[in-house]
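Q: What structure does this chain adopt?
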Amino acid sequence: REERRERGEEREREMGEELGEVEKEVLEAQAVADEQGNNVRALKAAVKKGEKTKEELNEAIALLKKLKLELDGKRKRFDELVGGGSASSVNKEAFRRAVGNALERRMFITQSFSIYGGTAGLFDYGPPGCAVKSNIQDFWKRHFILEENMLEIEGPAVTPAPVLKASGHVERFTDLMVKDAGNGECHRADHLLEDVLKKMLANPLDGGKRKEIENVLARLDELGAQELGAQLKKYEVKAPDTNNEISDPFPFNLMFATSIGPRGDVQGYLRPETAQGIFVNFPQLLYYNGNKLPFAAAQLGQSFRNEISPQQGILRVREFTQGEIEHFVDPEHKDHPKFSRVADLEMLVFSREKQVSDVKRPVTMKLGDAVKSGIMDNETIAYFIGRVYTFMVAIGINPERMRFRQHLEHEMAHYAEDCWDCEVESSYGWIECVGIADRSAYDLKQHAAATNKEMGAWITFDKPKFVEELVVEPISKVLGKAFRKDAKTVVSALKTMTEENALKMKAELEKSGEANLKAFCDGGDFVIKKDMVKIERETKKVSGKFITPGVIEPSFGIGRILYCMFEHTYYVRESAEGEKEDDKKVVFKFTPLVAPTKCTVFPLLQKEEFNVVCRDVCNSLVDSGLSTIIDVTGTSIGRRYARTDELGVPFAVTVDHDTLEDNTVTLRERDTCSQVRIPISDLCATLKNLSSMKTKWEEVQAQYPSQGGSASVAKE
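A:
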């Protein structure tokens, strides 16, 4: 593995060196071609004046053509190395349009309120889109909630303002925005800069300019308003479409504000994430779980973000389905009992170190090695990365186009200990689909402080321990006489002091005989005398301790995962020999797990005796829990196959003349177009096993005789 990794890094270095050389050659060839172009223009003027001959001009033009051909060859190699360039961009846009057209044509996804002109960032899922999305969500619940024994909750989307103020969303849930100085149009600042820099990288650049731009892109997510504004000015970024000047970046809060109740005096927000609904229920969830750690809770539901400039279809929308898991764990023990199950999984890992290196490419690595080397902070976060990986592959994401990118130091929230994004490559670039973060105990502590409620857990040691503790013991009798109705407040403040502040108060009491409470905690302006509190270190035998659990959080954007899966499963089946070029057929090669319909049933011909059998077969498949559609239209069997292939249906059953004789049907598999002859009595069980992916198509082919198709099917 080390040798493979070293060879991969060596190849990356060689590619980087070649890119530098080719880039230099392109710039030199461009300069030579430009100079020759100037010569040709000068010769044309000289020929008109009779100072030069046409033969000299023709020779110069021939040389210019030769130089341009050489330049085109070098530019083509440059485009291959950078994986971009104008040709690549055009191909990506054409592919994106083709996928989008197929999704819209078959009503997987459609613009919301389209008859009213639509609203940016809002989309509807049609019948097949709903089915695919529902299947992904069902598998998400099975893969995580069921298999990991998680506790599922469902909370409201409307959230009171104090909850989101405590979590930090009211103050800090922002993106940086700029405005078009001409028309006031709003744009997300980092996206404008990213678009400009990527276009620059698609062309040859002088000296260290490429490396400089790549470094800015690598750090884009951690740029603050001031630094981002400086970069926008440096690269002369203008407003798209109008080319007007833009304002300096400023923060825009992404939450939708609302009011709760008829008087409108209770402020609320549509939740920007589902996580807070889990955190505020932590005490009840802990009790439900028998007061034992670790445990995980999950919620799948709608979240809302008022995106500045929603683009890229369902990748960036204002209402979306989010699945979040909060795994509560002892902060000092983040090993995982099932880590060995994923330790040998290999995947593309894009560590912090690689992102800031010259190469800037991920490496293939086993999770076990990532934890041992310290690249991943602990077993629990690595375990969930492994579970995310297996989930994504199972629903149809290409593992070679998926990577796990570690957040840079300044990109992480101040309280986070480690953060990784599962990014999937699409025609839009690398898209963050899942975030896996070690959030420490931040959220629980914030809600505890805001509500004065206990948000911790008691953990019992395997064996009792003798520990030295700083004990703060308020003398209630003395405090009661001194402060009367305020005594409870003072006692509570003394008990919740940090150890550092308690030791400072002890020193002050020993020095002066008294201390002001507000100097050491938020307990108010009360003078504490030496006889009112006892602060001593004591050795105690303890059987456990009270902790605020840490949290490992995988957070899933279901719509983003869904779109990337659409792109990864889309392809066009080439025309067969003798067919017209426009007979190419669109196919979505959905895994049977997520396919909107598992099977279609066709009669070979429009005959009532065939239709009767088709209806019986369809009913039996539906009764066994398989989503099935029946197509008895008069179109050819080949066209019906093509129509369902475009919907991603993995299997098709055809009833024909032989069915009436021996009760067998033809079963066809979508991607290979191969067919077997199978008894109707075996059909339900076989399709159930195929749909749940317990059985592979190759096993079915080995069990049942092959079936030759009709002329149209064979041609397809």
